[in-house]
Amino acid sequence: MKIYQLLIFAFLLIFTNAFSQIGVGEWRDHLPYSNGIKVAVAGEKIYCATESNVFYYNKSDESVNKISKVHGLSDIGMSSIAYNVEYDILFIAYSNSNIDLISGQTIYNIPDIKRKQITGNKIINNIMFINQFAYLSCGFGIVVVDIEKKEIKDTYLIGSNGSQINVYGLTTDNNHFYAATEKGIFKAEQDDEFLVNFANWHHIDDAPQNNKKFSSIAYFNNNIYAAYENEDGLGKDTLFVFNGNTWSKVDTIFKNIVKITTSNNKLIVCQNYEMEVISVNGSTTKYIYLRPYDAVFDSDNNLWIADKYYGLRKAISTTSFKDYYPNGPYSNNVVNMDVQGSNLFSVIGGVNGSWGNLWKSAEINMFIDNEWKTYRTGTYKDIMSIIVDPSNPSKAYAGSWNGGILEFNNGEFVKVYDESNSTLQSVISGQKFVKIGGMAFDSENNLWVSVSSDGDTPVSVMLPDGTWYGFKYGSLFYNYVTSDIMATQYNHKWILLPRGAGLFAFDEKGTYDDLTDDDTKEFSILDETGKVITNDIHSFAEDLDGDIWIGTNEGVLVYYDAENVFTGDNFYAQKIIIEIDGNTQYLLETETVTAIEIDGANKKWIGTRNAGVFLMSADGTEQILNFNTENSPLISNNIASIAIDNITGEVFFGTSKGIISYKSTATMGDDDFNKVYVYPNPVKHDYLGLITVTGLVANANVKITDITGNIVYEITAEGGQAIWDGNDFSGNRVHTGVYLVFCSNEDGSKTHITKILFIN
């Protein structure tokens, strides 16, 4: 068992600029919270579990508060939650069978089921409390957790001959347990001390549909109610009731029963798009216009609902609801991101392993002014890429694997570009089936596009005035699928050719309608001997020195003379040699590198398929950071995309489980000192975090002096940002007073002075 502290905090506006910030070294999540699946009442707090995390609504101050890995949870992706009133513990079950118990400000992690080598389904479907014990209905049986001792007490395998069986729910009439399973209903004496013996669990043979799936079960009004999941595909489930002697069918047609539960002496039947609440006198109240997955009454008889689309809902009437959930994206399966001017755009979509369509509806999530907004449509499918216009951070372009390019401005859809209004070619002529592999802006704000098609124009460009040109390079790599495209500082364009096809580079020389002077080259990744290293390429990026970093299935490779790509045959990539524990090896040689981004200090953020994120020094030889799911709030070790806000230094990691971000030390340097500011300022006596001086010229020298001119500390900026811990050269905290911050560029031709106030 692991114990953590719960860090509940609000992100405050800590300076007067137009955007709020987290501190250097801090994390924040950007996860969907509207897909509620479970709800629990804990006094004035109403907890709601989503497919990603947990949040709660505090009735006392009407606040909505997140609880995620950033705040100390041990995992991500919930399957169930429940609150034990007697012990004041929130029980959290994750979809991977991990368990957290929250007691006050402490989190107790119980990973036993997650770590247990169990073949098949381990998901925790439901939680039931009896005194100090939590009975978990699991995909393989029943697990009993002692919440007082914070440990697993027993495991019941109740299937035939002690085999595994999927238990969807458990209830009790105070004498017997009743378990709803994939093969009917089982019964056992509640006080039996030997329930670990499968023979003490009896299959109820005389129950209706006795060997079929029962998805939920509850004890209400001295009867057992069990939901039978109809197998006829018509979506009409049956609710059976057992009075202690006989079984009968509730004379109501139910539509896809999601869950039945009891609360405040009422039976709640959650169904697709409606919910029925049955009182002990048999009266029924039907709630519509919702998608309930769970529901509960609080002590004031308010009905709270975990809704698939609207998070946590409070019923105002049978047709009216008030919704509560933190702002976030709509979905979590991120495939690509881009950020400009602190506006982050992410897309949901992708392709299968053969680069075929998944047919996922287009979803573009936009983080603008610290608020998420989502655009969704079924017209376009499989969004692969997103890019923000550097000259207008409110404008973005999303590339679809079937419908061309979607343009957005100020969060609104503007238009689509396909073969009808551009030089983009369809896979099948005349059918507007345009597959966009990647997009990139060059230094003149031209938008370059790589296209996969059977035509002769795999590359197009849109100029700032909206004029399109196509480049008939099809014969140079005919029938190859194209992926990402990159415009380098040498005005060369590189295209990643997936499925082991290598790379393609070209230089159109600025003559868009004349291909005769173009330089082109299709090439494999070779070493200095001319041997192919690998052509399984997943990512690339150009650093601030013009070197091209390539992410492959065998780690990272670098082209140090990228400007010479067209000048000769002796053009090869090099591996980075690093030293770990006295042993030399190639950088990430056993990892598939899925994403590479360069920060303002020319350091490399590298995302992998299985090992999380690495921050490497500018030359790649020193590992500065490694974030994974075990040592950080990172939500997945499989990184699909990385995007860096060069204004704030916030680094966003996009994964199949959503987006999480980390505030790094580096930003992109400015041309002058016109935007310098320090935060926090003043530095109060109880603040022990890092102090940031940002808005600097790249790699500026920063000297901090007291008011009489004595230097207390000196820093070199990482890109456009310098970080100070508030201590002097001797490691002692500086005294109360005003301190001067002298900033100068590398040759001293540009200078600036600002102040910091310390209050100790």
Q: What are the salient characteristics of this protein?
A:
760 residues, mainly beta, Methylamine Dehydrogenase, Chain H, Neuraminidase, Immunoglobulin-like, 3 domains, 5-stranded antiparallel β-sheet, 1 helix, 1% helix, 48% strand, globular
Topology:
Layout: E1 2-5, E2 27-30, E3 36-42, E4 45-50, E5 54-58, E6 63-67, E7 78-84, E8 89-94, E9 99-103, E10 106-110, H1 112-115, E11 124-130, E12 133-138, E13 142-146, E14 151-156, E15 167-172, E16 176-181, E17 184-189, E18 202-203, E19 214-220, E20 223-228, E21 236-242, E22 247-249, E23 254-255, E24 257-263, E25 266-271, E26 274-278, E27 284-288, E28 292-297, E29 303-307, E30 311-315, E31 321-324, E32 334-340, E33 343-348, E34 361-368, E35 371-381, E36 383-389, E37 392-400, E38 404-409, E39 412-417, E40 435-441, E41 447-452, E42 459-462, E43 468-471, E44 485-487, E45 493-497, E46 502-507, E47 519-523, E48 537-542, E49 548-552, E50 555-559, E51 574-575, E52 577-580, E53 583-586, E54 593-598, E55 604-608, E56 613-616, E57 623-627, E58 639-644, E59 650-655, E60 658-663, E61 677-679, E62 691-694, E63 701-705, E64 711-716, E65 721-724, E66 737-744, E67 751-758
Antiparallel strand pairs: 1-10, 2-60, 3-4, 4-5, 5-6, 7-8, 8-9, 9-10, 11-12, 12-13, 13-14, 15-16, 16-17, 17-18, 19-20, 20-21, 21-22, 21-23, 24-25, 25-26, 26-27, 28-29, 29-30, 30-31, 32-33, 33-34, 34-35, 36-37, 37-38, 38-39, 40-41, 41-42, 42-43, 44-45, 45-46, 46-47, 48-49, 49-50, 50-51, 52-53, ...
